[in-house]
Amino acid sequence: MSVSATLEDCLRNKGSRYEILRHPHSHTSMDTAQAAHIPGDQLAKTVLLQDEFGYVATVLPSTYHVRLSEMRKRTGRHLILAGESGMRELFKDCELGAVPPVCTAYGMQTYLDESLMRQPDIYFEVGDHEQLIHMNIDQFLDLMAEAQTVQCAHRTW
C-alpha cells in the first residue's frame, strides 16, 4: 500500500510541502518511531473514539495517551476507544492502525492535542505501516486547520 488517496488529495489541495520517509514495517506508533529513528514526541498518532452518535478523532504525540475524561468533558459525549470494525469501514484506503491525522477529510470531527504544536517537525502515518510523511510544523498546522486544538492527552513516559 502507499499514501492513502484521501490523504494525497488533502496534501495536493493544501499545496503541502513534505517528504516521504520509509521505514521497516511496524505495528505500534512507538515501534514506528524507533524503526524510523525519529523522536516519539514528533510522531503524530491518530486515536479514534466513539459513542452511540459516531466517531471523533484525536491526534497526539506517540508518547502520549488520550485523556478520555477530558474528551468527554470537551465534547459532552460518553466517548470510548473505537473498535477495529469501525476503523476498517471509515478508513477504507488505509491499513488497520495506520490512520493519517487528517480525519476531517474523512468527514470526522478532529481534535489536535496542543503538545504537538511545540514540535518543529511532525511525522505521521500515510495509510500504511512502512511510510511516514515528514513536514514542518507550519505545514502540518495548515493541513490540520479544520481540527480543534485542545489539551486532551498526557505523556506516558
Automatic annotation (TrEMBL):
It comes from the Bacteria. SUPFAM superfamilies: YbaK/ProRS associated domain (SSF55826). InterPro entries: YbaK/aa-tRNA-synt-asso_dom_sf, YbaK/aa-tRNA-synth-assoc-dom. It holds the Pfam family tRNA_edit. Residues 23-143 form the YbaK/aminoacyl-tRNA synthetase-associated domain. This is Aminoacyl-tRNA deacylase. It comes from Undibacterium arcticum.
